[in-house]
């Protein structure tokens, strides 16, 4: 027997029980030590080429060796980030890629540092300024902005008093036509001007009092009433026009994201350059061998575009979510103010409401991750269980309420299609896409097959429980057809029937109310119970299955305190506001989906499976792709599996519970297409994940199967009654 070695690591949940591989490795090779002491990185024990198995496992079975290879140690910059990483590997917790605290500046890459730097740094060699991004700036903004400066300069010269600002605008017209490789500096006022302006403050060396002020035409033109009149003319006639133009450039360039440097350039010009006295502004072209002049550098730009600005964040919020936030306001105002559809139609409002769900899903996810990382396990579990599925449930419940009020069964069928689409998409499309994108960078990716096996077992259980009432109705229900034709002209021959379904309401609904409905309630109780057992299994008794150790460490010489982007109260406020806006957008989406369902030639199945199912999951898909690019496919797979498990074990039972208190047309009886698609997807997913490794080919298989199922839904006829 190998002696038990206590694990000295610590994480947010307290000491963990060492796995079998930990005890073997510690007993055989105690000199390896804790991988967490090597620095703040992701550590995976690597096997030297040609040695076969790791040294610590040479004397043990293949099972122990495989477990040892999968052993992973993660380290974080601070305790809050360590808690967030630990939550990522907990079953049932929302996986979040972005940081919830401000990262230390010295730990960031040079690419990221350039994104946040101000445009006031002169480089020794900026390279060629003739780039595609700079030419794009010239075509979009440079030519008309330069022309506007020329026109303003002409107006300033015509006023005579604004002539100094006219000269400034003339110089800035050439600058903004092509600002790259040029610098704007704030220079000191010449002494002759300071003498004229500050004559009152001078003193006589003989008398010790103020010296008499000598009048000079040159001084009078630069100071006094003339100076104030020139500034007044500029602030009334020139500056407002240019401020509006620069504001338009800022908004447009910011929305294009890659042109954010142009937005910074325009904003800095409007807030700094145009408010300086003309004689204090110096514009010059930089030369590679030239020493910069003395004075403050206000603007120095070399590139108008940077493709890495998709990483840019404002107070921890990704720039895409920031840019989509005004869309939520436009959607709410347009949806509730223009109720008669005078300005736009239902299709536009439905599209806007659906697009508004994406940034709101991001804010909800960020708020949940922030609260969980700054709280204990109990609070994090409650927040994740309460708000983890709030996006989907909000839309489903509002759709069922509208369908019940109108007596339209189509809404219930659309909700079933969305549930199935979320299940199939998270089982096939999300992990498949992550495998393809991650496989392009990494030839082969490995993941923890034991942790994936827990989610797979719960998926099998949940799919079987969800579709049990459907299978029961197929066996005991009465087949009713809308129209039948005798194809053999013989009364005893074969009949061709259309629009057939199993009727459970025969004999006053005896089959449904006496057998199917009790089965639905039983399943709705057992599925959440199984989910809780899975949580207890993975989070309490068998935490070593994941074999992930999180430690709060720092690089030598670095000591950082955690500066969170959102405090707990701020995150809670954003979470509640986002949920409220989500409810309003879901109400607008269901309000304006009816014309699309009735007038569209596309099957309602396809609309529910694609648009309504996958659009709210886009932030989760982006998180999964980012994990896969970092060779962390385990979290990419867990993202899809956790969503699929929550659909079956939480969302569907909640909808059944809702129908008890608010009767709707929703019944837990799905069409044959939903049953076959879901079961086939789960079986294929388990087959792919069996060996604990994958590549881009296996991911391509999953994605192709998903698109084949979408083609089936596209050509399928609409549900009966729609």
From TrEMBL:
Membrane topology of the entry: Multi-pass membrane protein
Any single Gene Ontology cellular-component annotation: vacuolar membrane
Keyword vocabulary terms for this entry: Antiport, Calcium, Calcium transport, Ion transport, Membrane, Phosphoprotein, Transmembrane, Transmembrane helix, Transport
Membrane-traversing stretches: 135-158, 232-262, 317-337, 343-365, 377-398, 418-440, 452-472, 519-539, 571-590, 602-622, 643-662, 668-689, 696-716
Domain Inner membrane component, chain residue ranges per copy: 132-182
Source species, domain of life: Eukaryota
GO biological process entries: intracellular calcium ion homeostasis
Record-level Gene Ontology MF annotations: calcium:proton antiporter activity
Gene3D superfamilies (UniProt xref): NCX, central ion-binding region
Localisation: Endomembrane system
Domain Sodium/calcium exchanger membrane region: residue ranges: 349-468, 571-713
Any one Pfam family match given in the protein's UniProt record, by short name: Na_Ca_ex
Name this protein carries in UniProt: VNX1 protein
Organism (species): Catharus fuscescens (Veery)
Lineage: Eukaryota, Metazoa, Chordata, Craniata, Vertebrata
């Amino acid at each position: 027997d190998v002696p038990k070695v206590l694990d000295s690591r610590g994480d947010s949940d307290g000491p963990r029980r060492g796995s079998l591989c930990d005890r073997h490795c510690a007993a055989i090779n105690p000199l390896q030590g804790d991988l967490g002491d090597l620095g703040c990185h992701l550590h995976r024990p690597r096997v030297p080429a040609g040695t076969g198995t790791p040294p610590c496992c040479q004397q043990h079975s293949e099972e122990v060796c495989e477990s040892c290879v999968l052993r992973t140690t993660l380290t974080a910059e601070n305790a809050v980030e360590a808690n967030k990483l630990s939550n990522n590997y907990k079953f049932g917790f929302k996986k979040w890629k972005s940081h919830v605290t401000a990262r230390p500046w010295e730990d960031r890459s040079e690419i990221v540092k350039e994104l946040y730097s101000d445009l006031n740094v002169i480089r020794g060699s900026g390279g060629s300024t003739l780039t595609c991004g700079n030419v794009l700036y010239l075509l979009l903004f440079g030519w008309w902005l330069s022309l506007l400066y020329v026109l303003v300069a002409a107006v300033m010269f015509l006023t005579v008093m604004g002539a100094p600002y006219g000269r400034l605008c003339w110089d800035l017209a050439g600058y903004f036509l092509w600002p790259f490789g040029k610098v704007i500096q704030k220079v000191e006022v010449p002494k002759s001007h300071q003498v004229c302006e500050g004559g009152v403050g001078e003193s006589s060396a003989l008398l010790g009092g103020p010296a008499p002020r000598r009048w000079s035409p040159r001084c009078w033109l630069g100071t006094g009433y003339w100076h104030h009149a020139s500034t007044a003319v500029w602030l009334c006639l020139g500056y407002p026009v240019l401020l509006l133009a620069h504001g338009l450039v800022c908004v447009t360039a910011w929305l294009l994201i890659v042109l954010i440097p142009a937005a910074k350039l325009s904003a800095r010009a409007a807030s700094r350059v145009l408010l300086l006295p003309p004689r204090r502004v110096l514009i010059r072209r930089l030369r590679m061998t030239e020493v910069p002049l003395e004075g403050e550098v206000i603007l120095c730009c070399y590139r108008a575009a940077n493709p890495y600005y998709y990483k840019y964040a404002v107070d921890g919020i990704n720039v895409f979510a920031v840019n989509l936030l005004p869309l939520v306001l436009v959607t709410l105002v347009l949806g509730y103010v223009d109720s008669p559809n005078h300005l736009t139609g239902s299709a536009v409002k439905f599209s806007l409401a659906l697009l508004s769900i994406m940034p709101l899903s991001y804010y909800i996810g960020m708020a949940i991750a922030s609260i969980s990382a700054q709280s204990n396990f109990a609070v994090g579990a409650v927040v994740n269980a309460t708000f983890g599925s709030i996006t989907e449930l909000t839309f489903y419940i509002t759709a069922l309420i509208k369908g019940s009020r109108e007596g339209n069964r189509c809404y219930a069928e659309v909700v079933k299609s969305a549930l199935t689409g979320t299940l199939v998409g998270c089982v096939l499309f999300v992990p498949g896409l992550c495998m393809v994108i991650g496989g392009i960078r990494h030839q082969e990716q490995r993941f923890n097959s034991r942790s994936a096996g827990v989610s797979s077992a719960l998926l099998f259980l949940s799919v079987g429980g969800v579709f049990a009432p459907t299978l029961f109705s197929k066996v005991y229900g009465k087949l009713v057809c809308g129209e039948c034709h005798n194809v053999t002209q013989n009364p005893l021959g074969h009949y061709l029937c259309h629009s057939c379904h199993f009727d459970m309401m025969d004999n006053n609904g005896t089959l449904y109310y006496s057998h199917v409905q009790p089965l639905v309630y039983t399943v709705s109780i057992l599925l959440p119970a199984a989910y809780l057992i899975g949580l207890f299994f993975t989070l309490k008794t068998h935490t070593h299955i994941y074999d992930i150790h999180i430690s709060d460490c720092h690089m030598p010489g670095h000591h950082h305190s955690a500066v969170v982007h959102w405090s707990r109260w701020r995150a809670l406020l954003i979470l509640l506001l986002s949920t409220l806006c989500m409810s309003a957008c879901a109400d607008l989406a269901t309000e304006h989906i009816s014309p699309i369902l009735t007038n569209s030639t596309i099957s309602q199945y396809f609309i529910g499976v694609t648009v309504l199912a996958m659009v709210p999951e886009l932030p989760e898909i982006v998180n999964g792709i980012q994990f896969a690019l970092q060779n962390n496919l385990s979290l990419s797979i867990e993202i899809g599996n956790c969503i699929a498990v929550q659909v079956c074990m939480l969302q569907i039972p909640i909808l059944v519970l809702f129908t008890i208190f608010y009767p709707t047309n929703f019944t837990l009886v799905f069409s044959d297409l939903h049953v076959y698609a879901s079961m086939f997807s789960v079986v294929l997913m388990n087959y792919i994940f069996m060996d604990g490794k994958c590549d881009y080919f296996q991911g391509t298989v999953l994605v192709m199967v998903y698109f084949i199922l979408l083609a089936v839904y596209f050509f399928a006829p609409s549900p009966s009654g729609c």
